[in-house]
Every structure is written in structure tokens, then in C-alpha cells.
Design a protein that fits this description.
Number of helices: 12
Structural class: mainly alpha
Order of helices and strands: HHHHHHHHHHHH
Distance between the termini: 66 Å
InterPro entries: Aquaporin-like, Aquaporin_transptr, MIP, MIP_CS
Helix content: 55-70%
Radius of gyration: 24 Å
Keywords: Membrane, Transmembrane, Transmembrane helix, Transport
Largest sheet: none
Strand content: under 5%
Pfam family, one: MIP
Number of strands: 0
Protein name: Aquaporin PIP2-2
Organism: Castilleja foliolosa
Length: about 290
């Protein structure tokens, strides 16, 4: 006589996944921010970060121009080259975003701030004051460059963004739109909180892809516009250099980045994240 033994089927393996809920959109007007020290600390962080960004990168541009200027004894193949300039911009963004992300979000660029505002990541008040802080920081950063390199500053264009000879305004505008789209799209993707829930097996250090995006865009567009993709960078250099040529096509370095940022915000939020479909589904369920 055999002993009956109960057989229990093995339990199905449990797959743990982090719970995820879309964070609520930032309010359009959040006047409570004006009463918080953390908000003013964020403004200071954006100001200093943009100052340091312009100081290092514009110095790199002027140094390269001087090292390759045969009139002043430079070597045609000397200096860091376009590759080195692109590394300076991308590397500084990587460093500064890493340092300030936990304080201000590490925007360092009015176009990034504008894109995040359209994506309802920041309020209108924060967006506007961030842009002011970034532009002031850029002016001060280039001011330091002129103070330290006054001999060469005006001789080499002050690091100002200008449309290169042989390119029309449409090409320059298109380059700025596409370049800023790449940057802001990368920002949205790298900082998407859903990645940590859905793709927890893909670790992302946000400053790294953002810095690489800046690096790659500079390689492509330095020969066309000197690469703006950051209105504060273009504005700070134009203010301190203050030459008619720097202001002639300056609108390109505001309109282009803002259009590119808007397209990137729309693409990520409404196409990739399907915000429009979710909103429609919510409307239908309520009805």
C-alpha cells in the first residue's frame, strides 16, 4: 500500500518590477517657489554653471584660433582642433550637469529649460528665471574670458556664434533646429523616470549621454554656425564681443534652439510617451 503524497505544482516565478506612476505635471504658475530657499539656490547653481561653461569653452575656442593663426606664429595644424573644441563643450556639459542636477536639474541652457517647460516639468516662473540666470551667467563667463585674454579676444571674434561664409540663413536655422532637437530629445530620454521602472536593467548616468549629444552636435555644426544650440551661450558671447557681425544673424541662435526644443518635447511626450492617447483614453473613461 503506497502512501498518498500530495503534489503541488511549482509556483510560477515572480517577476518583480518597480511600480511606476507618471509624476504630476508642474503647475503653470507656482508662486510658492518664490518663498523657498531651494529655488534661489537653484538659480545660483544655474548662474554659476553657465558662467563656468562659457568661461572654459570660449577660452578653448580663442586659444585654438590663436594657436592656428600663422600671422601670430601659430601652426596650421596646432591647437586642439575642432575635435578638441567639441570635447570642451561636451565635457563641460557632462561635468556641470553632474554637479548641478541634484540642485537645479542642470539645465545650463534656455532651450533645455524651454523644452522641459513645454513638457510640464518646470513651472513658468522657474523657466523664466532660469533663463535669466543662464543669460547673466553666460555674459559674466565671457566677460572673464575678455578680461584674461584681452589681447586676443577681439582679434579672434570673441568666440561669438556667426553664420559661416557660404551658408544661407535657412541652412543655419535648420542646423540649429536639428542640433537642439538632438540635445533636448537626449535630455528627455536620459531623465525619463520611467526608465528606472521599465528598463531597470539599463543603467543610465544622465549627464553622460547629454554631454555626448553636445559633443556630437558640435562636430556636425561647428563649420556652419559655430554651434549655438544654447541661446545663453550665443547671447553672452554676442553681448561681450558687441560687434555688428555677431548681431546680424543672432536671431537664428534663439529661434532655432527654441523650435528644436519644442519639437523634441512634443516628440518625446506625445509620440514616444503617448501623452495624447492617454489623455484621450482618460476622457473616454470619464465620459
Amino acid at each position: 500500500m503506497t502512501k498518498d503524497v500530495e503534489y503541488a505544482a511549482p509556483a510560477a516565478p515572480e517577476f518583480s518590477a518597480k511600480d511606476y506612476h507618471d509624476p504630476p505635471p508642474a503647475p503653470l504658475f507656482d508662486f510658492d517657489e518664490l518663498t523657498k530657499w531651494s529655488f534661489y539656490r537653484a538659480l545660483i547653481a544655474e548662474f554659476i554653471a553657465t558662467l563656468l561653461f562659457l568661461y572654459v569653452t570660449v577660452l578653448t575656442v580663442i586659444g585654438y584660433s590663436h594657436q592656428t593663426d600663422a600671422v601670430h606664429g601659430g601652426e596650421p595644424c596646432g591647437g586642439v582642433g575642432i575635435l578638441g573644441i567639441a570635447w570642451a563643450f561636451g565635457g563641460m556639459i557632462f561635468i556641470l550637469v553632474y554637479c548641478t542636477a541634484g540642485i537645479s536639474g542642470g539645465h545650463i541652457n534656455p532651450a533645455v529649460t524651454f523644452g522641459l517647460f513645454l513638457g510640464r516639468k518646470v513651472s513658468l516662473i522657474r523657466a523664466v528665471l532660469y533663463m535669466v540666470a543662464q543669460c547673466l551667467g553666460a555674459v559674466c563667463g565671457v566677460g572673464f574670458v575678455k578680461a584674461f585674454q584681452k589681447t586676443y579676444y577681439n582679434s579672434y571674434g570673441g568666440g561669438a556664434n556667426m553664420l559661416a561664409a557660404g551658408y544661407n540663413k535657412g541652412v543655419g536655422l535648420g542646423a540649429e533646429i536639428i542640433g537642439t532637437f538632438v540635445l533636448v530629445y537626449t535630455v528627455f530620454s536620459a531623465t525619463d523616470p520611467k526608465r528606472s521602472a521599465r528598463d531597470s536593467h539599463v543603467p543610465v548616468l544622465a549627464p553622460l549621454p547629454i554631454g555626448f549629444a553636445v559633443f556630437m552636435v558640435h562636430l556636425a555644426t561647428i563649420p556652419i554656425t559655430g554651434t549655438g544650440i544654447n541661446p545663453a551661450r550665443s547671447f553672452g558671447a554676442a553681448v561681450i564681443y558687441n560687434n555688428d557681425k555677431a548681431w546680424d544673424d543672432h536671431w537664428i541662435f534663439w529661434v532655432g534652439p527654441f523650435i528644436g526644443a519644442a519639437i523634441a518635447a512634443f516628440y518625446h511626450q506625445f509620440i514616444l510617451r503617448a501623452a495624447a492617447i492617454k489623455a484621450l483614453g482618460s476622457f473616454r473613461s470619464n465620459a
